[in-house]
Amino acid sequence: MEENFIYCEEAESKFGSTKKAISTLGDVSVRFLTSNESPQIETGAREYQREKVAGLFWKQLVMLTVISNGYRKIPQVHIRVVKNGKSWKLELIDGQQRITSIIDFINGKYTLPNTDNFNLGNGTDVRNMGIEDIRKDYPQLYQQILGYRISCLWYENINDEQTADLFINVLNNTNAMKPQEIRNAVRGKLSEYIRNSSRSFRDSDERLPLFERIHSDSKSKKATLKYFSDSFTISGRMEVDEWLSELIYLLENGYRKGISQQSHTKWIKAVQGTGKESGTLSTQEQFDEFLEETIEPFMKFTHDVITSVPSDYRFRLTPMLSQMLVLYGYELKTKYGHLNTDVYVKKFFDVHKRWSNTDLKKGPRLYQDEVMFGTQDEQMEPFNKLFGGKNKKAIGTITLILDKEVLEDMDSFGIVELDGRETFTKPQIIQKWEEQDRKCYFTGELLEIKDIAGDHYIPRSWGIKKGGVTEIHNLVVTSKKLNLKKSSMHGDDFMKLLNEEMAVA
Fold first, then answer.
1. Domain range for residue 91?
2. Do 273 and 326 reside in the same domain of the chain?
3. What's the predicted TM-score (pTM) here?
4. 437-450: per-residue pLDDT in tens?
5. Together in a domain, 117 and 223
6. Total tally of structural domains belonging to the chain
7. Which of 112, 155, 203, 346 has the fewest CB neighbours in a 10 Å radius?
8. Residue 59: in which H helix or E strand, if any?
9. Cα separation of 47 and 354, whole Å?
10. Cβ within 8 Å of residue 184, ≥6 positions away
11. Does one domain contain both 205 and 156?
């Protein structure tokens, strides 16, 4: 065997002889890739990998190359070796579609087509056959398939940042990589969350229900999102990854400032600590806290808003409009305390319709007397024309219109302004308890101090405008048990419920 060539059969003994970052020419066999005795090769671990978009016929042609074993060969693949003491694992850096096509066939996930080129001659006809058919009818060919060798480069002692650099700047420097493909090459928990939440990747599906796909037919390589516009197509180039990544960036950095590809990429790198300095989301603990306190409640709101859009309006849910719909609504919810999403969505599209009108027969051109945000004399465009770019001027003009409408009628947006004080103070509760002769307000039964609870007679969730304030005049004292039972009921309704229960008893 050659000195600077590592065959897969000898790989384990060859790796680990140096601590330098090196690459070495070698090869892998199909048997090595699919054997339980070999280290498992991760084919989808890295965030930059695209969704598994290779069609069935493309995968079948890969297997034709393997079966023919002629002058045509599977192009070289690139494999990272991660060795820790005696244990080691492999990570596929480049060649996902080629390798998974072979692995899937060996695992029985598809069969060969009924086409003439799969009739190999000499009495060997593998049309319509799966791997088990070949093993049974053509054992020699079966062994040939397992012994098929693919050229590779092994990489040792390279870290995540070097691996991403290799993928972006060397292996794909002649390809037109989208900015999101470059961002997803940044290894980190946030990139991992974005990838796994936005799409179905290999056999693991952590995708959020919001991003459910609809395929027009079984052979189609493209798909649409169930809850978005049909124009939001999925071609496997990380379109949904980008939508989600942008949404999180805009949330964290102030969506009214806008977003650029450069600022977005710079932030993704910074928060995950890909440089010399650690980022704010470098550790598992930091990310878990961010996930629980920020991302999960925000994504729940996002799901509620998007799925509240009536089906006859979904054609408007393009990437940018859907982002603005979510972000402006979340801003209202955060500012005022509560937002009725159904009412908000209806109002948003009402604003969209009225401020997009260009036909005087159907109403006034509301935008005509306004200027674009940040300008003195640039004529404002109709609302529906503002969703072409995510810069500060476009977003500023969108929010200028929405802010104007909110000032005119907050209620129509579903806004419920809550009292910032969630609970009564202990002295206030004791004072009211004494005023009630130490009895429960609702039942008149004596209460011990250890069992008292302060309750909003008009629920806080009803909002300030309806009297749900954390003021002494809206405080009654009851038992802890009844306080839980009352929940968000109005005091009058709760009294009625208790009286009805007593009458039945």
1. 5-175
2. no
3. 0.70
4. 999 999 999 999 99
5. no
6. 4
7. 203
8. helix 56-68
9. 42
10. 47, 48, 191, 194, 195, 238, 241
11. no
Output the CA–CA distances (angstroms, integers) from residue 263 to 160, 188, 257, 267, in the order listed.
21, 18, 11, 6
Query: 318 and 263, same structural domain?
Result: no
The H or E element containing residue 359 is none
Q: CA nearest 447: which of 455, 489, 423, 496?
A: 455
Same domain, 57 and 170: yes
Q: What is the CATH number of the domain that holds 476?
A: 1.10.30
Tell whether 436 and 379 lie within a shared domain.
no
Q: Which residue in this structure is represented by tokens 């995968």? A: 59
Cβ proximity of 242 and 50 under 8 Å: no
432 shares a domain with 325: no
Structure tokens belonging to residue 138: 């053509």
Q: Which of the two residues, 1 and 224, has the higher pLDDT score?
A: 224
C-alpha 289/C-alpha 293 separation (Å) is 6
pLDDT of residue 72: 82
- The C-alpha angle with vertex 127 and arms to 122 and 133, in degrees rounded to 5, equals 90
Q: What are the tokens at 450? A: 């250890």
Where is the domain boundary, 417, 448, 472?
A: 417
Residue 502: CB partners within 8 Å, gap ≥ 6? none
Long-range contacts of 85-92 (CB under 8 A, 24+ apart): 88/12, 88/15, 88/16, 88/39, 89/39, 89/40, 89/41, 89/42, 90/39, 90/40, 90/41, 90/42, 91/41, 91/42, 91/45, 91/46, 91/163, 92/41, 92/42, 92/43, 92/45, 92/46
Residues 291 and 169 in one domain: no
**Checking DSSP bridges between strand 5-7 and strand 22-29, what pairing results, if any?**
parallel
Length of the chain: 505
Q: Residue 312's CB: how many other CB atoms inside 10 A?
A: 8
User: Residue 194 in 3-state DSSP?
Assistant: helix
Which of 417, 451, 484 is the last residue before a domain boundary? Answer: 417
Sign of CA dihedral 146, 149, 152, 154: positive
Three-class DSSP labels, 220-246: CCCEEECCCCCCCEECCCCHHHHHHHH
